[in-house]
Amino acid sequence: MTDPRTDPRWLDATEMAAWRAFLSTSHLLERRIEEQLKAAAGLTHPQYEILVRLADAPGRRLRMTELARGVVSSKSALTYQITQLEKAGLVRRETCPSDDRGVLAVLTEAGMSCLDRVAPGHLEVVREYLIDRLSREELRAMTSAMRKTEEALRSSV
Amino acid sequence: MTDPRTDPRWLDATEMAAWRAFLSTSHLLERRIEEQLKAAAGLTHPQYEILVRLADAPGRRLRMTELARGVVSSKSALTYQITQLEKAGLVRRETCPSDDRGVLAVLTEAGMSCLDRVAPGHLEVVREYLIDRLSREELRAMTSAMRKTEEALRSSV
DNA sequence: CAGTGGTCGTTCAAATTCGAACGACAGTAC
DNA sequence: GTACTGTCGTTCGAATTTGAACGACCACTG
Questions:
Q1: Contact yes or no for B138 and A149 at CB 8 A
Q2: What residues of B are in contact with residue A2 (Cβ under 8 Å)?
Q3: Cβ A28–B153 below 8 Å, yes or no?
Q4: Chain A partners within 8 Å of B130 (Cβ)
Q5: What is the pLDDT of residues B91-138, one digit of tens each?
Q6: Does strand D come within 7 Å of the CB of B44?
Q7: Which end of chain A is more exposed for a tag (fewer CB within 10 A), N or C?
Q8: CA(A101)–C1'(C23) in Å?
Q9: Is B131 exposed, middle or buried (0-12, 13-18, 19+ CB in 10 A)?
Q10: Residue B28: Cβ-neighbour burial (10 angstroms; 0-12, 13-18, 19+)
Q11: Which nucleotides on chain D have any atom < 7 A from a protein Cβ?
Q12: pTM of the model
């Protein structure tokens, strides 16, 4: 384990360029996606991601904590967003039958049809700016890289 | 130009996996970086990025709008953060000599030494979770991919 | 010089985020 | 059963972000 106080290993030009490109691009893409979702459905990106995760889950329902892990947000942020989505009728809360502490977020029919309506336009943005611009080899390498980092970050918490 | 309403080109499994890995990883990494910077220096990531951009700029100063472009934030968010950094003594404002509307954000000596103090620990995180885990080929492919997307997003606005 | 359209940075209200603290419940040990 | 330790989801206050609206200024036109 290196000690950054005594061994400041700077990034070389190539590494720094990679990091900055990643950083700028993730922010720019986030901005663009947010804009598209807001215009198309009045949804924020976190809200959309919640709907997606629920739609993929067995029974279209997930425990709050598990959902928070999936969408990478704090528990309190999820509580807030589920409340918003509940007001909009896209999600409802159920108490967990096997654990009285637990709460299940459940995708409603309205939520499902909202997702069906919004997903194509959203995915078109993802295609237009990211997926369709990458060669098959770039796509493969990026996925591999992202997975390594994701695994490292998830297992370190 | 395809119409998402009539031609919903879904992402195949490989593409979807790539997109989700990118999304989760960028959020997880953002979280980890935020945590490290907060603990090490009481800085947020946006604040740190502002210091970096100013340190790299000629004369260690940049126009507000140009700086906002660089760090990918709204103008109002930048106004807020520059005010915070000014209170901390890391940045000061100057009026632009060539344009009375303009404001220059200038990195102070304290700001420069703060950056020197904080950068190694920050870059160590970037290394530990991203850079050092990637092969040279993955790094190259990721940079190429990110640049394509970044350029597309910057030129479309 | 007055007029016009655009850019600059700031202000404002509203929405969202986070971490810390909390009460409620689960699981285990004794 | 009682006590202890940990997890669950929520609440709270503080900090931050956003887009819209604003006044100030620039550059150009006539």
A1: no
A2: 124
A3: yes
A4: 19, 22, 145, 149
A5: 999 998 888 899 999 999 999 999 999 999 999 999 999 999 999 989
A6: yes
A7: N
A8: 11
A9: buried
A10: buried
A11: 6-13, 15-20, 23-27
A12: 0.89
- B75: tokens are 């103008």
DSSP H stretches of helix in chain B = 13-41, 45-56, 64-71, 75-87, 109-129, 136-155
Question: B-chain residues within 8 Å CB-CB of A139?
Answer: 14-15, 18, 145
The mean per-residue pLDDT over the stretch A105-116 comes to 95
Give the model confidence (pLDDT) of B90-103 as tens digits. 999 999 888 889 99
Decide: CB of A30 under 7 A of nucleic strand D. no
Is A138 within 8 Å of B141 when comparing Cβ atoms?
yes
Q: What is the DSSP letter of B72?
A: T
> Rounded to whole angstroms, how far apart are CA atoms B12 and A86?
31
Q: How is A92-148 classified by DSSP, letter by letter?
A: EEEE-TT-TT-EEEEE-HHHHHHHHHHHHHHHHHHHHHTGGGS-HHHHHHHHHHHHH
Q: Whole-number Å distance, CA A68 to C1' D5?
A: 24
Which amino acid does the sequence have at B110? A
Q: What is the DSSP string of B86-120?
A: HHTTSEEEEE-TT-TT-EEEEE-HHHHHHHHHHHH
Of A119, A141, A150, the CB nearest to B138: A141
Average pLDDT, chain B: 90
**Rounded distance between C-alpha atoms, residue B95 and residue B90, angstroms:** 17
C-beta of residue B143 within 8 angstroms of C-beta of residue A21: yes
Residue written as token pair 């260690």? B60
| Nearest-5° Cα angle at A31, A25 to A33 | 100
Tokens of B102: 């303009």
Residue A157, pLDDT above cutoff 80: no
